[in-house]
Design goal:
Blueprint (H helix, E strand, L loop, with lengths): L7 E2 L2 E2 L5 H11 L5 E3 H9 L7 H16 L6 E5 L2 E5 L6 H14 L2 H12 L13 H27 L7 H10 L4 H13 L3 H19 L5 H11 L34 H12 L7 E6 L6 H11 L8 E5 L12 H11 L11 H12 L5 E7 L2 H4 L10 E6 L4 H7 L2 E4 L5 H12 L1 H6 L1 H11 L3 H13 L5 H11 L13 H6 L7 H12 L5 E2 H8 L3 H13 L4 E3 L3 E3 L2 H11 L4 H26 L23 H25 L2 H18 L2 H15 L5 H17 L3 H17 L3 H17 L3 H18 L2 H17 L3 H17 L3 H17 L3 H18 L2 H17 L3 H17 L3 H17 L6
Parallel strand pairs: 6-9, 6-10, 7-8, 8-9
Antiparallel strand pairs: 1-2, 3-5, 4-5, 11-13, 12-13
GO molecular function, one term: DNA binding
Family: Belongs to the AfsR/DnrI/RedD regulatory family.
Keywords: DNA-binding, TPR repeat, Transcription, Transcription regulation
Length: about 900
C-alpha cells in the first residue's frame, strides 16, 4: 500500500530495520530496475552534508537489506558498476501499480476511467514514506502527494464526463476550500453546483475565485474557467448532461502543441529544410519530415520551435501526440489510442466513434481533409505506429520525430528525411548563453570552452549543465567541468529519467535484439575512435552478414553514424554509455571480444607492413584467435591506405593490448607500424609505440625482440633529437646482439647508430658505424641490406667531401637496389647521387637525380623523405638562379616539415625563403 514503506511476503511483513536503512530501501524502490549510484544513495539518506562514515554505513545497510530480501520471490538487490540495482516486477510495487492504473485511465472511456482511478486511489494508506526523515524523503513525500492529488482531480473529471454532478458537491466544496486558487478545482465545483441545480451558488463561487486571483496573483481566471462561467451564466443545456449523452460536442480547433522550447538555438539548415517541406504542400502527396537522431539530440525541440514559428500556416489546428516509442512509460502507444485522442480533440462525441480501428482512422482522415492542420507525431518507434495517423489530404503537414530512421516512411509515403546531428561549437555556446548570460560566459571563458568540448554538442547534456549552473550561480563552471571530466556520463545522470542522459539513451536499446545490444556494448569498449565492418565482425565474433545487420540496426536507432569509407562512429557520450552497458556482460565475453579485435588489427597491420617493406627482418606474430580473418590487402598502395585510415585505431589497439597484458601484441604492433611511421613522419607516435613495446619486451622470452625494441626505440629517440636516450638504448641493443651472437641485429644496430651520429653532426663517427654494418651485411649475403649500407657509406663520404668514394658506393648501391626491385632504397640512393652532383657543381645532374627520387618517394607515400628531397632540390635551383622554382619546392618542404612537427627543419627552410626573398625581391615563384 502507498503510505509507510513496507514489504510483505507470504502474508507476513518483513522487518526492514532502522529508519535510515528503510530510507536506503525507499531510495532504491523509487528507481526500481535502474542503477542508483552510491553517491545518490548517500545524498538521499544523509543529505548533501553526509558524514565521513556514510559510505561504510550505507554498505552495511545494503548488506542487511540483501539478506532480508533474499527470501522474497522475484526481488534481488544487485551491485552494479558505480551503484546498486533493485530488480522487481513493477506490478509488485504499489506506486508503480498506481501509476499504471492512472495511465490506463487516461486512455479509457469515462465509466472505465472512474473504475480504474478508484482502484488506483484505493492503494493509498496514510502519508507516503511515513517514518522517514531527511530532505529527500520530504521532497519525495511532497511529489507523491502531488501525484495522488492529480489522480483525485482526474477521477472528478471522469465522473463529470460520466454525467455526475450533485454527488460531487460536498467533496468538491472541501477540496475548493483546500485549494482556493486551483482553477481546475474551481471549474469542477462550478459544474457540479450547476448540475445540482445551484446556478446562483456556482456564479457566486466564480466571483469569489476571480476576486481572490486578482487580489493574490494579480490575474483574471484563465480562458477555460471564463468560458465555463459564460455557459453557466447562459444556462447552457450542454452542461446538464454528460457529453456521452449529448448529440454532439462543440466544434473545436485543436491547439495541442506543447510550449515552444525557451532555449532553442541554431539549427538554421534544418529549419530551412522544414520550410522547404512546408512550401511543397501544394503537391499531391502528404509532406512528412521524419526527424531522426539520437535520444537527447533535440528532435522534439526542433519540431516544436519550427511549428510555433509557423502557427499562422495552420489555422485549422495543431494535433500533437507523444507516441512513447522511447520513454519510461513502457510500451509504445498503440496507433488506435492515438487516433482516438485525435478524434476527441477534433470534437467527435464518444458515441460517434466507430469501434473498428480502420474506421476510426478513416473518420480521422475525413475530419482533417482539405484543412490546414499540423500533425506532430513525437517519439515514434515504428512505421506501423505512424501510418494510421497520416492524413490523406495534401493540405496537412506532418512532423514525425523518432530515434529510428523509419525507412518505410521514405519509401512508401514520400517522407522527407531530416537527420539531426549534434550542435556546432557556436550553437553550443549560444545555448549556454541563453541560460547563463553573456557576462558569466565571458568571465569563465576557458571553462566554457572545455565544457563545450566535453559535451560534444549534445543538447541534452548542455541543457542539464546549464540548468544546474543557473540554479546555483555561486558554483564556478570550472567545478562543473572538473566533475564532468572526473565522472563522465555519471555527471549527466539525474533522478528525473527524462533529464538523465544515460536513462534517455537506454530507451534506444529497448527495441534492439540481445545480439544487437551486445554489439552496441562491445563497440563501447573497442579500441579506436571508429570502426569498420570487418573489425566489428572480429569484435563480436559474428559472421559479416549478421554483423552488417547489427550495425544497420544501431544506425537505424541513431546510436551509430555511418561515415565515408565504410566507417562507423559513435558520439563520445553515446560511446561512454555503451561502455557502461558493456560491464553488464560476462567478463569472458568482453575479454574474448577484445582479444579477437586486437588480433584482427595486428595481423592486418602485419600484412600491410610486409607489403610496404618486404625486405625487413621477419617477425611473425602469434596465430590469431579462432575465427579472426585479417582484412585482405592487394598491394602496397592498399596497405598504405589501410594504415592511414586505421592509424588512430591501431595506436588505441596497442594500448588495449597492454591493458589486457598481451605483451606480444604490443610488441608486434610497434613493429608493424614502424615503416609506416617512418614514411609518414609520425615521429612521436613511433616513440610512443616503441616505448610501449620496450616495456612489453621485458615480459617476453624472445631476446631478439628485446634487442630490437631497444634499437628501434633508440632510433625513434634520435629522430626527435633525444640523443642521450638514443645512445643508451642503441648501445644496449648492440650489447644484447653481441651477447647472444646475433650478427643481423648487430648490423642493424650499427646502421641505426649511423643515423643517430649523423643527426648529431658527427659524420666521421657515423661513417665508422656504416662501414661496420656494410662488412656484416656482406658476410650475411643480404644484398638489399648491403645496398643500404653502401648508400650510407656513400652519403657520409659525400658529406665529408670524399666525392669519388661517395659516388662509387652509391652507384654500387643503386645497381643492387634495382636488381632486387627495392624502390625505397633506389629513391634514397638517387637522393644521395643528387647531393653528390650538386656538391661537385653538376647542378643539372643533381636536379635529374632529385626529381627521380621524388617520383619514387611520392609513389611510395614516403612523405618524410619527400620533405628531405624537396629541401635539397631547392639548392641546385637556387645555384642555377631559378629563384621561383627554389621558392616553390622550399614552400612545399616547409609545409611538410610543419605537418610532421619537424620544427628545426622548418625554421631552417623558412630562413632560406626569407634570404631568397631578400636577395631577389622581384622574383615570382
Amino acid at each position: 500500500m502507498l503510505g509507510e514503506l513496507a514489504v510483505h511476503t507470504d502474508g507476513r511483513r518483513l522487518d526492514l530495520g532502522p529508519a535510515r536503512q528503510r530510507c536506503v530501501l525507499a531510495a532504491l524502490v523509487m528507481d526500481v530496475n535502474h542503477v542508483v549510484p552510491v553517491e545518490r544513495l548517500i545524498e538521499r539518506v544523509w543529505g548533501v552534508d553526509a558524514p565521513a562514515r556514510a559510505r561504510p554505513t550505507l554498505l552495511t545497510y545494503l548488506s542487511r537489506l540483501r539478506q532480508t530480501l533474499a527470501g522474497v520471490d522475484a526481488v534481488e538487490l544487485i551491485r552494479r558498476s558505480g551503484g546498486y540495482l533493485l530488480t522487481v516486477e513493477e506490478s509488485a510495487v504499489d506506486l508503480y501499480r498506481f501509476r499504471a492504473l492512472c495511465d490506463r485511465a487516461r486512455e479509457a472511456e469515462s465509466a472505465q476511467a472512474v473504475r480504474l482511478l478508484n482502484e488506483a486511489l484505493d492503494l493509498w494508506r496514510g502519508e507516503p514514506l511515513s517514518g522517514l526523515a531527511g530532505d529527500w524523503a520530504l521532497a519525495e513525500r511532497d511529489r507523491l502527494a502531488q501525484e495522488r492529488l492529480a489522480a483525485r482531480h482526474d477521477l472528478v473529471d471522469a465522473r463529470l464526463r460520466d454525467g455526475q454532478g450533485e454527488e460531487l458537491v460536498v467533496e468538491l466544496a472541501a477540496r475548493s476550500a483546500e485549494h482556493p486558487l486551483d482553477e481546475r478545482v474551481a471549474a469542477q465545483y462550478l459544474l457540479a453546483l450547476y448540475r445540482g441545480g445551484r446556478q446562483a451558488d456556482a456564479l457566486a463561487h466564480y466571483q469569489r475565485v476571480r476576486e481572490r486571483l486578482v487580489e493574490e496573483l494579480g490575474t483574471d481566471p484563465g480562458p477555460a474557467l471564463q468560458e465555463l462561467h459564460r455557459q453557466v451564466l447562459a444556462a447552457a443545456p450542454a452542461l446538464l448532461a454528460a457529453p456521452a449523452r449529448t448529440a454532439a460536442k462543440r466544434a473545436v480547433v485543436p491547439r495541442q502543441l506543447p510550449a515552444a522550447p525557451a532555449s532553442f538555438v541554431g539549427r538554421r539548415e534544418q529549419l530551412d529544410r522544414l520550410d522547404a517541406a512546408l512550401r511543397a504542400t501544394s503537391t499531391s502527396t502528404v509532406v512528412i519530415s521524419a526527424i531522426a537522431g539520437a535520444g537527447g539530440v533535440g528532435k522534439t525541440w526542433l519540431a516544436l520551435a519550427w511549428a510555433h514559428h509557423h502557427l499562422d500556416r495552420f489555422p485549422d489546428g495543431q494535433l500533437f501526440v507523444d507516441l512513447h516509442g522511447f520513454s519510461p512509460a513502457g510500451e509504445p502507444m498503440a496507433p488506435e489510442a492515438a487516433v482516438h485522442r485525435f478524434l476527441d480533440a477534433l470534437g467527435v462525441e464518444p458515441g460517434r466513434i466507430p469501434p473498428d480501428p480502420d474506421a476510426q482512422a478513416a473518420l480521422y482522415r475525413s475530419l482533417v481533409a482539405d484543412k490546414r492542420v499540423l500533425v506532430m507525431l513525437d517519439n515514434a518507434a515504428t512505421v506501423e505506429q505512424v501510418v494510421p495517423l497520416l492524413p490523406g489530404s495534401p493540405s496537412c503537414t506532418v512532423l514525425v520525430t523518432s530515434r529510428n530512421r523509419l525507412a518505410g516512411l521514405l519509401v512508401r509515403h514520400a517522407a522527407r528525411p531530416l537527420h539531426l546531428d549534434v550542435l556546432s561549437d557556436a550553437e553550443s555556446r549560444a545555448l549556454l548563453v541563453a541560460s547563463l548570460g553573456e557576462t558569466r560566459m565571458a568571465d569563465e571563458g576557458p571553462a566554457v570552452a572545455e565544457l563545450i568540448g566535453l559535451c560534444g554538442g549534445f543538447p541534452l547534456a548542455l541543457s542539464m549543465i546549464a540548468a544546474h549552473a543557473a540554479a546555483d550561480p555561486r558554483v564556478p563552471l570550472a567545478d562543473t567541468v572538473a566533475e564532468l571530466r572526473e565522472f563522465g556520463l555519471d555527471a549527466l545522470d539525474s533522478a528525473d529519467p527524462t533529464a538523465s542522459l544515460p536513462v534517455v539513451l537506454s530507451w534506444s536499446l529497448r527495441r534492439l535484439t540481445e545480439q544487437q545490444r551486445t554489439a552496441f556494448a562491445l563497440l563501447g569498449v573497442a579500441p579506436g575512435p571508429d570502426t569498420t565492418l570487418p573489425a566489428t565482425a572480429a569484435l563480436t565474433g559474428l559472421p559479416p552478414t549478421v554483423t552488417r545487420k547489427a550495425l544497420s540496426a544501431l544506425e537505424e536507432a541513431s546510436l551509430l553514424e555511418r561515415r565515408p569509407g565504410g566507417r562507423y562512429a559513435m558520439h563520445d557520450l553515446v560511446r561512454a554509455y555503451a561502455a557502461t552497458t558493456a560491464h553488464t556482460l560476462p567478463e569472458h565475453v568482453r575479454h574474448e571480444a577484445l582479444v579477437r579485435v586486437t588480433d584482427f588489427h595486428l595481423h592486418t597491420a602485419h600484412a600491410a607492413d610486409r607489403l610496404l617493406n618486404p625486405h625487413r627482418p621477419p617477425a611473425r606474430p602469434d596465430t590469431p584467435a579462432p575465427g579472426v580473418h585479417p582484412h585482405p590487402l592487394s598491394d602496397a598502395a592498399a596497405a598504405l591506405a589501410w594504415l592511414e585510415a586505421q592509424h588512430a585505431t591501431l595506436l588505441a589497439t596497442q594500448r588495449t593490448a597492454a591493458t589486457l597484458g598481451r605483451h606480444h601484441v604490443v610488441w608486434h604492433l610497434a613493429w608493424a607500424l614502424d615503416t609506416f611511421h617512418f614514411r609518414r613522419g609520425h615521429r612521436r607516435d613511433a616513440l610512443a609505440t616503441w616505448r610501449a613495446a620496450l616495456a612489453a619486451a621485458e615480459h617476453l622470452s624472445d631476446l631478439t625482440a628485446r634487442s630490437r625494441a631497444h634499437r628501434l626505440f633508440g632510433n625513434a629517440c634520435a629522430r626527435l633529437g633525444r640523443y642521450g636516450e638514443a645512445a643508451g638504448h642503441l648501445d644496449r641493443a648492440l650489447a644484447l646482439a653481441r651477447q647472444h651472437h646475433g650478427p643481423i641485429e648487430q648490423a642493424l644496430t650499427h646502421y641505426a647508430l649511423t643515423a643517430a651520429w649523423e643527426r648529431q653532426g658527427d659524420d666521421r663517427r657515423a661513417l665508422e658505424h656504416a662501414r661496420h654494418a656494410l662488412d656484416l651485411y656482406r658476410t650475411l649475403d643480404l644484398p638489399v641490406w648491403e645496398a643500404d649500407a653502401l648508400n650510407a657509406v656513400g652519403w657520409l663520404a659525400a658529406r665529408l667531401g670524399e666525392f669519388d668514394t661517395a659516388r662509387d658506393h652509391c652507384l654500387a648501391a643503386l645497381a643492387l637496389f634495382r636488381r632486387h626491385r627495392y624502390t625505397d632504397g633506389e629513391a634514397t640512393t638517387l637522393d644521395s647521387l643528387g647531393f653528390i652532383a650538386h656538391r661537385t657543381g653538376d647542378h643539372q645532374q643533381a636536379l635529374d637525380h632529385y626529381h627521380q627520387a621524388l617520383t619514387l618517394y611520392r609513389a611510395l607515400g614516403n612523405t618524410y623523405h619527400v620533405a628531405n628531397t624537396l629541401d635539397r632540390l631547392g639548392q641546385p635551383h637556387a645555384a642555377l638562379a631559378r629563384t621561383g622554382q627554389a621558392q616553390a619546392v622550399w614552400r612545399e618542404a616547409l609545409a611538410l616539415y610543419r605537418d610532421q612537427g619537424r620544427d628545426d627543419d622548418a625554421d631552417r627552410v623558412q630562413k632560406r625563403l626569407d634570404d631568397l626573398a631578400h636577395t631577389s625581391p622581384n622574383e615570382s615563384p
